[in-house]
Amino acid sequence: xRYDRTKHTKFLIQAAVFLCVCVSIxxxxxxxxxxxxxxxxxxxxxxTAAFKxxxxxxxxxxxxEVLSIAPRxxxxxxxxxxxxxxxxxxxxxxxxxxxxxxxxxxxxxxRNNYGAVLLRLGRPKAAAREFTASLALEPRQTSALVNLAQxxxxxxxxxxxxxxxxxANILSPDAEIMRSLVAIxxxxxxKGRAATEYASYESALKSVQQDTRAGHRGSSRDLALAEAxxxxxxxxxxxxxxxxxxxxxxxxxxxxxxSKVYLRQKKIIAAGRVLxxxxxxxxxxxxxxxxLAEVYEAGGYPENAIPAMRRAIAKEPKNxxxxxxxxxxxxxxxxxxxxxxxxxxxxxxxxxxxSLWFALGIAQFDSSKIVEAQRAFEKALxxxxxxxxxxxxxxxxxxxxxxxxxxxxxxxxxxxxxEKVGVLHYLLGETLMKLTDADDQRVEAVIKRAIALxxxxxxxxxxxxxxxxxxxxxxxAAVRFESAAKLEPDRSETFYQLGRVYARLKRTAxxxxxxxxxxxxxxxxxxxxxxxxxxxxxxxxxxxx
Length: 545
What we know:
The chain has helices spanning 5-21, 27-31, 34-52, 56-69, 74-86, 90-103, 108-120, 124-137, 142-154, 158-171, 175-187, 191-207, 212-217, 220-231, 235-248, 252-264, 268-280, 286-298, 302-315, 320-332, 336-349, 354-366, 370-383, 388-400, 404-417, 422-432, 440-453, 458-470, 474-487, 492-504, 508-522, 528-541. Among the domains are: 1-172, Tetratricopeptide repeat domain (Serine Threonine Protein Phosphatase 5, Tetratricopeptide repeat, Alpha Horseshoe); 389-541, Serine Threonine Protein Phosphatase 5, Tetratricopeptide repeat. It has 545 residues and is an all-alpha fold. The relative contact order is 0.03.
């Protein structure tokens, strides 16, 4: 929740009324005669009334007269700051609020006013000092708590910011404060707490009846919250947040993200419906056509995916990323020759596009042009050294050439660029196992890291099981192969390995059953291992790092 001028101005009006009800403050009272003091108080009340009614000119005129009589009147300077703030005259507001704070440093409202305008002027450190001083004088101020919390949040002090937001929410429960608490918990990796806080945030929004709810829900900050929820694995909450945004406005970024969440959940029809409905309603955006192409491809409809991708390119012909995605789409539809033609055409127009060189490398790799693919991937990396998918593919090239040490170094580079991708750790571990002097302890640690990052990565379980077989750790190997069999019950290699391990453990009946399953699956999966590795690398090609 950021500084809200409308809310703050309302608070300032209330403060000004309070000040005007009181006698003139400080040095002015001592210097003015009783008659002048009475006149100043009457004019302040009249000026406040004019401001509240929207008559700014009259309010300013009266204030000018007041300040000519009593230039150091705290109430007059406060009201002058409010008027200046309402006209977006931040310099004028800062001048009057600063003087009011100097005249009456022990008034919490005055210090809070000054802090608020400093915050709007982009001076957060100075603002923080004023909010801190204001709260020391009166801790129960929602606006000061929230504004100070926002400053601390921007400065990375999440724990202290959370404490202040929680105090503010107790004083005045507010959906935006709750939203900030959710964001903090997500940033701290506290998934369970974030889910609980998100439920409270939703309830608070549902209880709000004003039209401002729609404006709040449709803001770009809510899209950021949806992205954070998704990144933390709270998919259901992310979907609800995105659906709420879309119920309030047509937000293309929210549309696309919602379709991607549905794709992750294997809800292909739902993903397609979201995007197709938007197009039918008149949304003519290249990003939507790209997302549609990806949905159609995932659903096995290349005849729809290709026209959608062409439409995206037609909308943004100078977007080299779209050209590379089109090339990848052609490759994925088993048309590498056509992909080569289109990518090479695009490279004439975009010779320094890392994504196009990367796509060219994939087309060559799939056409078994390994040397040419290596050159293309190296060219892509010379343009963008942090292009993780290109690093993964270059590692695969080296594996194809039995250059395992070089492949391992490339995978290590990829992990250094993005440590959170389980597949990269798996590829490194699988490659390390091929070395004649393999360090089994390191291999085990690397594969375990892959599983920790991606528990559903079947290949990692199988590879770790094979390592345990090599070390005669039969019971641990059985656990890994059993996990792999649950994840992918149609994978032949798993049952072959499981049959061998059960035999070693004297579990004869289970060994026989596993080997029979292997025989049934084996004929159609003789090249499963190579296809599996290539498939995992291909999966990385579609990831946006």
